[in-house]
Amino acid sequence: MARFYSRGALSADEIFATGLRDQWHAVCPSTWVERGAIRKLRRLGEDWVLYRQSDGTVRMLADRCPHRGAPLSHGMHLGDRIACKYHGVQVDGDGTVLSVPGMPGCNLEGKKLVRALPVQEIGGAIIAWFGIDPETEPTPLEVPDPLADEGISEFLCYTEWEAPWRFAVENLLDPMHGAFLHHESHSMFGGAQSARFRIRETDRGFFFEKTDQRGMNFDWVEFCRSGVDWVDLEIPYPATAGPGGPFGIVGMATPIDAGTTAIFFWRYRRVVGWERDVWRFLYRTTLEERHWAVLQQDRAMLEGMAPDADQAENLYQHDLGVIRLRRMYRAQAEEQAKLLADA
């Protein structure tokens, strides 16, 4: 297994900072990886290369040629494989060396020497399995409910924040900030600025919700683990948003590195028929800009926090969801660090 981990074993602190392994993570919008092109990106503190095969299948490889370590992202797209530009070594989507043009028949050919990640495309995004042991099959990926429901229409919003990934997830597990930070927004101007919260367990995670208010503001959030970690939340819509149900968000946050995060928000609404057409038109012409303004408020707040802001806090009852999340992630990071050390 060691050949697949150029950085060697990771400590619990490093895993906590750069992202948990042995789970699926959203990587990038599907539109980023076009046919015939190669895309380089950094996720979980490591460099990767993505490309589409001739049949449209997305492949994701460690961005390192097995010959001399040159970046495969500088190479050539050859349909079902990438040819390293340094010496022409050809690697397929499984990480197997298919050809060494400089020395045909050498012992590199036929060997799986580049780490390849299992990949799926869901809701317009590429999602990859970052396993500890590359030989172990990934756990099943269950699609978030709103993205699998034909009665729901959604838009994928992608951005990147210069803040630790855990800050982004914790922001979503903090419904009370909506009544303050977003008080002047088009959809979160109502509701009380004081509340009591509770945690309600589910078979895939938990709800963190207000006990004394519903349907007024950002009143609840559900944290879900279905192979990939995601949150679901609901915000009431004013009448000016057109016909249809409440406005919902499915959110995911993927570490780029310890200080930068890839943010995925699927903004959705349960609408069908003509209501769906009206909602999508209003979203593109009016509502999208307003939603971006709200998102920018979150970004500015989290980017303004010190990287160690969570080390000097004084928490209270509203922070139970954040505390629960941190304990779970910290325990998982320590367990995974031990597995890597033992390997």
Please give the domain count.
2
What structural category do the secondary elements indicate?
Answer: alpha+beta
Question: What is the name of the CATH superfamily of the largest domain?
Answer: Naphthalene 1,2-dioxygenase Alpha Subunit, Chain A, domain 1
The CATH class name of the largest domain reads: Alpha Beta
The average pLDDT value, as a whole number, equals 92
Order of helices and strands: HEEEEEEEEEEHEHEEEEEEHH
Tell me what portion of residues adopts beta-strand conformation: 25-35%
Largest sheet: 7 strands, antiparallel
Rg of Cα set: 22 Å
Terminal CA distance reads 7 Å
Gross CATH architecture of the largest domain: Alpha-Beta Complex
Uncertain ranges: 1-6
- CATH third-tier fold name of the largest domain: Naphthalene 1,2-dioxygenase Alpha Subunit, Chain A, domain 1
Put simply, the count of helices is: 5
Q: Kindly report the spatial arrangement of strands forming the biggest sheet.
A: 11-17-16-15-14-13-12
Number of strands: 17
What is the helix fraction of residues, given as a range? 10-25%
Bulk shape: globular
Keywords: 2Fe-2S, Dioxygenase, Iron, Iron-sulfur, Metal-binding, Oxidoreductase
Pfam family, one: Rieske
InterPro entries: Cholesterol_7-desaturase, Rieske_2Fe-2S, Rieske_2Fe-2S_sf, VanA_C_cat
EC number: 1.14.13.-
Description of the structure:
It is a single chain. The chain folds into two domains: 23-130, Rieske [2Fe-2S] iron-sulphur domain (Rieske Iron-sulfur Protein); 145-330, Naphthalene 1,2-dioxygenase Alpha Subunit, Chain A, domain 1 (Alpha-Beta Complex), CATH 3.90.380.10. It has helices spanning 12-18, 145-148, 165-172, 273-303, 320-342, and strands at residues 23-29, 38-43, 46-52, 58-62, 76-77, 81-83, 90-92, 97-99, 119-122, 125-130, 152-161, 197-202, 205-210, 220-225, 229-235, 247-257, 260-270. It has 343 residues and is of the alpha+beta class. It comes from Gordonia hydrophobica. GO terms for molecular function: dioxygenase activity. Residues 24-128 form the Rieske domain.
